[in-house]
Specification:
478 residues; 25 helices; single chain; mainly alpha
């Protein structure tokens, strides 16, 4: 029996929520445009014309990405057009994002997700999840969170994982007898959303901020990240540690009784189809190369691209014939290329150096206090993430990394990695598109998601960040 027909085809039937609304007032748009002109005019009194134009471009792009007044791809396309027309930088700088392995890693992740759904593996996993959850509420939350985290190793896009898992969990909550406003339903959905989102910051290709940081570091400093080293550096505390903390927060904020009825689900005894087996072999080979990149030194993006080509080969049947047109989110790809290009333009214009010089005047860095310097850098990046969004952190902070390393006495890698500590610590839902997507798909209240964000933010700041600095010290980061 074809596995695809036994459960809803989530990725294709679930619409992506719109982050904008036609009924929104237009005054924020006019305000952003006016502030952009003001920033450009004022900065021209102190900077060169290319630098002042870059400052205005930086503000309007970040403002549009932060407020979602327009789709995320629109500022990216506008950036390409404006920077090219005004010759702010050479063409290879403006379009640096398309040359980055990060861009192609994101592309390959979309292809993997399409293949997983097309072959029916997602349906098989759904039934398996229904079988193993059991009848304990606490056990259900723990297992959903673990399953959600495991998806981060398989599907690089955070939004794609949310689109896949949230409708499945909503259906399971209905099966368990939890009504729309019950803590049980909220807890299950939150475990899926936060379980696949927060630990993913410790897995290099698992979400956009990680890959943007990696891509910009490669473009600016010619120093691509190692999958294995990144995992070792972040996963023990920011990955698994944050997952345990998140489970505790959800069980504390949203307690509930055991499900009203036992699961009545069985898994078909049929063996996996040839196409499912074929896809698993292809993906396992890809994962093996990702985990061993420190040995062969092939970038994760190029490994992903080769694997995506295999998945798209028509005769293998791993994706639909029109998959390249139907399943690839080109808006997301343009957004990634745009923000990487913006970072490259900032670095080329010298604006990053000017911002660093200002920061050094107001922030009390000391080369004799590496631990304090790490904390201050994390604080600065956290403020950036609150003012803009998570993806704004690498866009603004990465061009400054080399100069900050000279000022603080830390290694360039240590300075870059403080960004991960910041953009993995989410204060409010608006900072993270995957959480906004989960709110829309799961019909979750913003207050429920905000409670988890605030609790995890506070506990991370007080407990996990000091533990993470200790872990880095053990690894010899400083």
């Amino acid at each position: 029996m074809n596995n695809k027909n036994n459960s809803p085809h989530v990725a294709e039937t679930t619409p992506t929520p719109s982050l904008t609304s036609p009924s929104k007032p237009s005054w924020p748009l006019y305000l952003i445009l006016a502030m952009t002109l003001a920033i450009g005019a004022i900065s021209y009194q102190f900077l060169t014309l290319p630098q002042s134009l870059t400052a205005g471009l930086l503000f309007i792009c970040i403002a549009f990405w932060a407020t979602s007044l327009v789709p995320a791809y629109w500022p990216a396309l506008g950036l390409f057009a404006f920077a090219t027309a005004t010759q702010l930088a050479p063409t290879q700088v403006i379009f640096a994002g398309f040359q980055s392995s990060t861009f192609w890693l994101l592309f390959s992740g979309m292809v993997f997700g399409a293949a997983i759904n097309h072959t029916g593996i997602s349906s098989r996993v759904t039934r398996l999840l229904m079988l193993i959850l059991g009848n304990s509420y606490q056990g259900t939350i723990i297992k959903i969170a673990l399953f959600a985290m495991a998806l981060a190793f398989l599907i690089p896009s955070g939004v794609s994982r949310i689109v896949l898992i949230i409708p499945i969990i909503a259906s399971l909550a209905d099966h368990f007898g939890y009504d729309q406003n019950s803590n049980g339903r909220k807890g299950m959905l939150l475990a899926g959303a936060f379980g696949t989102f927060l630990p993913a910051f410790a897995i290099l290709p698992a979400n956009a901020p990680n890959m943007l940081l990696s891509g910009m570091t490669e473009a600016l400093y010619n120093a691509p990240f190692s999958y294995g080293e990144y995992l070792l550096l972040h996963f023990p505390v920011l990955g698994f540690g944050k997952l345990v903390m998140t489970i505790g927060v959800i069980l504390w904020l949203f307690p509930d009784k055991a499900p009203n009825q036992a699961i009545q689900a069985t898994i078909e005894k049929s063996a996996m189809t040839k196409v499912e087996t074929r896809l698993l072999i292809v993906l396992c080979v890809c994962f093996a190369f990702w985990f061993t990149d420190s040995l062969h030194h092939i970038s994760a993006g190029w490994i992903g691209l080769i694997t995506a080509l295999v998945c798209l080969w028509p005769n293998l049947g791993l994706t639909a014939k029109n998959s390249i047109d139907k399943d690839i989110q080109y808006g997301t790809l343009l957004f990634a290329a745009g923000i990487i290009g913006l970072s490259a333009i900032i670095a080329y214009s010298g604006l990053g150096n000017i911002l660093v010089n200002y920061l050094t005047e107001v922030i009390p860095f000391s080369q004799d206090s590496p631990l304090m310097n790490l904390g201050l850098l994390t604080f600065i990046s956290t403020c950036v993430s609150v003012v803009t969004n998570l993806a704004g952190v690498p866009a603004i902070m990465t061009p400054m990394a080399e100069h900050l390393a000279n000022i603080t006495g830390l290694s360039n890698n240590a300075v870059l990695m403080t960004q991960v500590l910041a953009f993995s610590n989410v204060l409010l839902p608006y900072q993270a598109p995957p959480l906004i997507t989960a709110i829309a798909l799961g019909n979750l209240s913003i207050s429920a998601v905000t409670k988890v964000c605030l609790a995890t933010f506070a506990l991370t700041s007080v407990l996990l960040l000091p533990l993470n600095f200790l872990w880095w010290h053990i690894l010899g980061m400083f």
